[in-house]
# Entry
Amino acid sequence: MGDEKVKILAIETSCDETAAAVVENGRQVLSNVISSQIELHKLYGGVVPEIASRKHIEKIDQVIRQALEEADTTLGEIDAVGVTYGPGLVGALLVGVAEAKAISYARGLPLVGVHHIEGHVSANYIEHPQLEPPFLCLIVSGGHTNLVVVEDYGEFRILGTTRDDAAGEAFDKVARAIGLRYPGGPQIDRLAKEGDPHAIAFPKAKIEGAPYDFSFSGVKSSVLNYLNQHKMQGLEVPKADLAASFQQSVIQVLVEHTMRAAEDLHMEHVAIAGGVAANSSLREAMETACESEGIRFYHPSPIYCTDNAAMIGVAAYHAYKKGVRHGWDLNAVPNLRLGERL
Amino acid sequence: MKILALDSSGLVASVAVLEDGDMLAEYTVNYKKTHSQTLLPMLDAVVQMIQLRLDTVDAIAVSSGPGSFTGLRIGSATAKGLGLALDRPLISVPTTQVLAYGLYGASGVVCPIMDARRDQVYTGFYRFTDGRMEVLHDQMAADIRQVIRMLDEMGQPVIFSGDGVPVYRGVIEEHMRVPVCFAPPHVDRQRAGAVAALAMEYLREGRTQTAGEHKPEYLRVSQAERERQARLEKEAGMR
# Structure
């Protein structure tokens, strides 16, 4: 690689965070600016795509300027522009993609489109300089649940995925059912600390013939049934116990499948990524399980778990080094699959 | 003064470069392909064709809406990115003004109508007096029948343009009492040339924005906001 420094301006607008960052050599985050819209979407109990897109266009220039200022740099010193082009909300993605294309076009900079989930996985490189592929990575967020082998930078073998709800989606739906506000994940995590994880037995779905796949609609339904029964009988719901028991059953499945894959494939390094990777109980459970098997466990800090542009800058750097360049016709791809390049 | 202008507010994608009184280039495509894929390659084609150095551009003009929400944002984000990267001001030109300016010098009332679905159009009323475009009614989202009534009350001949014409031409011809006519195809849709020409007027008047300030004019709140507002009003009524 030599001593050559590569500075990437990264832009991320796939959901409800308008984010920009400057990342050097794929490891050093010079700035990481995130303008969150959560408060706005709380009014609607979830992300409203049109509102998200409108906020992105209002904020994006300010966020990019701030990212450049905080990195103490200018566009003149930037080597490439990285941008999330999928998966995500199409209207939201389009704002970042159009902005990134215009900036790179006007400045004559290479344009590198990044897969959002590849970004999440890459968040692990920021704080763990020693981490290099291959490793096993569990990706858990509001829209995704994947168990993958990261074979090289930007190259993935997908072992398992969810058959129905994403893990984070199940958290949000259960949170809503017990009257917690959006976003539900962090609230369940908090409430679960006050409850007994063994108080209520919820099912842990296993899928015949697909040991690494996930299913969370069963546990979600049984939580809803439990709530209904209590309501009909006029009983008070032990919310903390319910949150703890639900969370426990989801986490157990995530950990069991990950550990099984680590054993089957003799993986020595295991990482987690995505918004749910910020869940403290999941981290602890993974940490404990990995420790007992002598496996090194990695996880990003919470700020790099939830959507951010620094992780996009890291992923863009590795794609850039591999010669990935996108044209001025780059489009948003809302259903972009992991490992797929368009 | 050199202005780079963009319009992706409707089905048309259009890019133009105006230098003082000369329209150096205009590239307009009215074909079903997403603006995200077409707009920047079109700009690139124009830039190469006229050997334009982007740093010689004085301002970026964009058709700011109303129109397709997504289309507006693609145009806006492109304009903002160019403005930020080139450190140039933006000029927001209301889309119905862009349409009306295409009919420069027409007599009577110039009424662009853009299909806003749900029996509504985005429209504005304009008139050319002494070589200037006069705004008779600011752009708005309105029921087509209400638009017809308002125009009839003005009692002057009307020329219509815009993508609302194919949708509402029948209703207009059936119900309007004042004489009407419809713009020919070369001037009945958005054109970046008109954005640029109007933007030159704006620039002379100092009506510019920073890239950070600019945002599209939707003339409509989102469906979620509309529904929430209706629910809150209903709840307030019940109390």
